[in-house]
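Run log // design_07
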């Protein structure tokens, strides 16, 4: 069984004991970096021929993230590159020429990497009730360079996240927990639902939406959050799912592109003294409270690459 060394920047897990550390180095702590066994021993199949490189760009006004994968005949995939939270524009003041030029540079950056073809590049964003003027401007310029921006509703964000996260045959025996700043989502596929792997029908999922780990900014107490988690998860606790996959959170896993570890056990998580942000502390509190609601033998598994953007890309 492989062993992976991490040291936690946050909660949930692990930040970085990377290959760049020389032997004995422990970053900003004098403690020995713990070794954590990956108890979840699923081996991800490699993509098989014919293999295609695809890219997806996640748009959040002027903050962009993109992911490049290679995907094979049976939709087995491997992450090749990810760039997250890249600020693309600065003080644009409706400068359409600058936005257009930055978008073209971003596309060129992706096309030049592994020779990704333009017809395998997609723009997506989370569907919202209202969109800012900047968002509308960016959307228009995306159209002007020959692409469309697909707005993904919440239910599909969850189903795409499942597609990117769940291994084969895990869809009806797993929960999914998505930790983000403004919401915590907990979901499962309805029992008896038939899905064609890796696709998951968004109409066949059940989910609950709770406060995200920035709840403290709204002056909501920890006690209120814990009570809400307990109440919201009651119907899920009554169902038996041996696994709970976790994505998002306040985590930084260094060199994860090189390791390409899709699944990391959280049951034996070990916390090391490190820089601890307020977000990290509250995110950890939410995760611990969720974990308490379920039987001790439930496996909690972190997926560094599980997100709706990659799930969308897999299904194209």
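design_07 sequence
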């Amino acid at each position: 069984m492989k062993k992976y060394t991490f040291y936690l920047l946050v909660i949930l897990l692990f930040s970085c004991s990377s290959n760049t550390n020389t032997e004995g180095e422990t970053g900003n702590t004098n403690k020995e970096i713990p070794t954590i066994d990956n108890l979840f021993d699923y081996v991800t199949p490699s993509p098989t021929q014919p293999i295609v490189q695809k890219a997806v760009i996640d748009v959040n006004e002027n903050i962009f993230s993109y992911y490049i994968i290679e995907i094979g005949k049976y939709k087995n995939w491997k992450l090749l590159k990810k760039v997250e939270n890249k600020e693309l524009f600065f003080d644009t003041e409706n400068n359409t020429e600058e936005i257009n030029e930055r978008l073209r540079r971003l596309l060129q950056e992706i096309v030049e990497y592994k020779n990704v073809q333009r017809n395998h590049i997609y723009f997506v964003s989370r569907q919202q009730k209202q969109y800012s003027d900047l968002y509308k401007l960016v959307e228009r310029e995306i159209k002007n360079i020959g692409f469309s921006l697909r707005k993904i509703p919440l239910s599909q964000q969850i189903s795409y996240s499942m597609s990117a996260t769940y291994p084969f045959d895990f869809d009806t025996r797993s929960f999914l927990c998505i930790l983000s700043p403004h919401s915590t989502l907990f979901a499962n596929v309805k029992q008896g639902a038939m899905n064609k792997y890796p696709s998951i029908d968004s109409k066949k999922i059940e989910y609950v939406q709770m406060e995200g780990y920035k709840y403290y900014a709204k002056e909501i107490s920890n006690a209120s959050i814990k009570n809400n988690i307990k109440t919201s998860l009651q119907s899920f606790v009554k169902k038996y799912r041996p696994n709970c996959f976790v994505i998002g959170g306040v985590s930084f896993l260094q060199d994860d592109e090189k390791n390409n570890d899709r699944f990391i056990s959280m049951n034996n998580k070990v916390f090391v003294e490190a820089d601890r942000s307020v977000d990290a502390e509250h995110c950890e509190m939410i995760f611990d409270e969720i974990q308490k609601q379920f039987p001790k033998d439930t496996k909690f598994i972190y997926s560094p690459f599980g997100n709706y953007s990659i799930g969308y890309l897999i299904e194209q």
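The helical segments are 96-112, 133-144, 154-165, 222-232, 234-237, 256-259, 278-292, 308-314.
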